[in-house]
Amino acid sequence: MIKVLCFAYLKEKVGNDRLVLEDASLTVDELLCKLEKEYAIDTKTIMVAINEEYAIKEDVIHAGDTVALIPPVSGG
C-alpha cells in the first residue's frame, strides 16, 4: 500500500486529500501517468516527494512509502 497526499487544487481534482494505492512498487513517472489518466491532472509541473524527500521521475516508490504531490503555488 502506498499513501499519496494531495495538496492545493489536487485535492479538488482527486476528491480527497489522500489516495491509497495497492501497488507494490512503481516509479514516480508511472504514478504521474496513472494520475493523468484517472483524474485528468496535468502533472508536468507537480513536484513529488517520497517520505519527505524530493524525488525524480526515475525514483521507485515502494509499499509503505508516503508520497506527497506538490503543485506550484503562488502567493503574496
UniProtKB/TrEMBL annotation:
It comes from the Bacteria. The keyword Phosphoprotein does not apply. The keyword Nucleus does not apply. Keywords: Nucleotide-binding. GO terms for molecular function: nucleotide binding. It holds the Pfam family ThiS. One of its GO terms (cellular component) is molybdopterin adenylyltransferase complex. One of its GO terms (biological process) is Mo-molybdopterin cofactor biosynthetic process. InterPro entries: Beta-grasp_dom_sf, MOCS2A, Mopterin_synth/thiamin_S_b, ThiS/MoaD-like. Belongs to the MoaD family. This is Molybdopterin synthase sulfur carrier subunit. The lineage of its organism: Bacteria, Bacillati, Bacillota, Bacilli, Bacillales.
